[in-house]
Amino acid sequence: MRRLTAGLWFVCMMFCLGVPALAGEGRIPIWQPLTIGPGQEGNYVLTRDISQAPGAPAIDILAGTGTVEIDLNGFTISGAGSGTADIIRAQGVARLTVRNGTLIGTVSGDAIDAAGCDKVVIEDIVARGVNSHVAFDLDLVNHFKIRRSLVHRWSICIEATGGVHGEIEANQIRSCEGIWVDAFNVAVHDNRLKGTGPAIYIDYADTCLVADNLVGDVNYNDQDGIVVRGDICNVLGNVIKLQASQGDGIVLHSSFGVVRDNAVMAAGNGLTVYGIANQIEGNVFSANAKAGIWFTSSSNDNTYGHNTLRWNGVAPGPCTSTPPACGVPDVCDDGTNNTSFSDNMGPGPGC
Fold first, then answer.
1. Mean pLDDT within 286-301
2. φ and ψ at 285, to 5 degrees?
3. Which segment of 62-66, 213-217, 234-238, 310-314 scores lowest on mean pLDDT?
4. CA distance 14 to 20
């Protein structure tokens, strides 16, 4: 009897003093806002819905902490009102994984903010915002994966800057400024984006892949579908339909890459090319309000062939080439040494 009483007293003291007990499989339960620091690494699991207190993250992981895994376990962390910090914040953490739950945003913080971390994995998260800040904000993260998440109503859905070796895969994104990436060696593929603008913006990211994304119903004024800056970037197999006034389907500032097998219908140009020495092949640019392909005056030495161009509208202006290589409005060539090879299936002359 005395041993049983002592055991119950120990359990009571653990909960009354706020010391977390180990959950199943050695996981540490989270039932209230929490700070995790060096020496507190481990696998954490949410055991109930919790609410963020104003002015502080719901889960704050401090610099110098090693590997932390957080399983939201299907539960929800709700942000507080104005003046609130990020819901989950990690600064200078070795490895962070957040999965399997819902984050409801606030007007003054991100859903997940990670900076200066070596590796971050975000998967199977629902992030609902209030048209402010960033859902998943990664800054100087060396390796990252964001996959199978549903993100909507943030200012920016996903932003990754200054990192390397990233993958953004199979997410559903709507009603925010899509995916913004300024990182090397990154792949953005198999995402579904609706009502975003610009949908995917790759900024000075050498060796990138943008493939098999669906971009639909972009309706912000003058916003483009996919914008790529950087060398050796491949834009493959994307399907894009834009409603935005003047927005272009694909804007290519990059060089030495491949644009292949995309299907684009836009209120601006189907493809606008600023870069050099790209190969543009096997695309369908149809019913774009301006040119199917516009090679700007800064473009040169690009090659294009096997593209289908039909029912495109007026030239984007100014189209100064006389005559354009394949006729306006389907192809407008204001650049230098851009070369058509094989067949480009358009009604204009010279193709």
1. 91
2. -115, 100
3. 310-314
4. 7
